[in-house]
Amino acid sequence: MCLGVPMQIKTLEGLLARCEAKGVERDVSLLLLADTELLPGDFLVVHLGYATERITQAQAQAAWAIYDEMLAATEASSAVGR
Question: Which pTM does this prediction carry?
Answer without folding.
Answer: 0.86
